[in-house]
Write a structure and sequence with these properties.
This protein is of the alpha+beta class and about 240 residues long. The protein is about 20% helix and about 30% strand. The protein has one domain: Pseudouridine synthase (2-Layer Sandwich), CATH 3.30.2350.10. Strands 1, 2, 3, 4, 5, 6, 7, 8, 9 and 10 form a ten-stranded mixed β-sheet that branches.
């Protein structure tokens, strides 16, 4: 059962678990569980995705309840009228917030995009970031006897593929658990010492003006047991 965090006559939103694909893909033929099919069976009607979350990312994922609603609302996502807030645990300490304006080249998939041109221009990508809490743990991953980590709030202003993961890696503060853009030593530390086997990136909230009722809507999704255990271990409080 998926946790439904919002539902009205137009939309339904769930708290997507980490590791679950949004919909069936020929790239993952062996997978049997998908958010779309699970949610459709759970509520007994078809759902239409309005945006995507990477497979390893958890958090708010919203669907339209009809194709007509989906076609009307999709431009809101395309024009970034939906405000998304994420939380992440990253390597190192970031002392103050800022905005990273760093264009990203299109990431091509080795299989799906094998005939695509590599010559695409880099696309504008902007992320606001804010450190919320930090910790220093007595475990070495290199030349120092301790290792530092930071709890971050991230707000993407654009929607590029793997934008938050790539932007944090560009700042030399990769997200823990990122096997593509991250640091293997830190991923291993979290697996072995904290039983954390996931990307520590969570879509905490989604805010927008409801296109049919004109109400301000904020949909929130809580973190999972892995996150809660880490926050307890580090003495961190997740924002409400």
């Amino acid at each position: 059962m998926l946790e439904i965090v919002y539902q009205d006559e137009y939309f339904v939103a769930v708290n997507k678990p980490a590791g679950m694909l949004v919909h069936r893909s020929w790239l993952d033929k062996h997978e049997t569980q998908f958010v779309m099919q699970t949610l459709r069976d759970q509520i007994g009607q078809h759902v239409f995705p309005l945006h995507r979350l990477d497979r390893p990312t958890s958090g708010v994922l919203i669907f339209a309840l009809s194709s007509e609603v989906a076609s009307q609302v999709m431009p809101m996502f395309a024009n970034h009228e939906m405000q998304k807030t994420y939380h992440a645990i990253v390597r190192g300490w970031i002392e103050e917030g800022g905005t990273l304006d760093y264009a990203l080249k299109v990431e091509l998939d080795k299989i799906a995009d094998k005939f695509a041109s590599e010559e695409k221009q880099a696309q504008e990508a902007v992320t606001d970031y804010l450190p919320l809490a930090k910790v220093e743990i007595p475990i070495s991953t290199g030349r120092f006897p301790t290792t530092r980590y930071c709890l971050m709030e991230l707000s993407p202003q654009t929607g590029r593929k793997h934008q938050l993961r790539r932007h944090m890696a560009h700042l030399r503060h990769p997200i823990v658990g990122d096997t593509t853009h991250g640091d293997g030593k830190h991923n291993k530390l979290f697996r072995e010492h904290f039983d954390s086997h996931r990307l520590l990136l969570h879509a905490s909230s989604l805010s927008f003006v409801h296109p049919f009722t004109q109400q301000n809507i904020t949909i929130k999704a809580g973190v999972d047991e892995t996150w809660n255990a880490l926050c307890s271990e580090f003495g961190w409080q997740m924002p409400n």
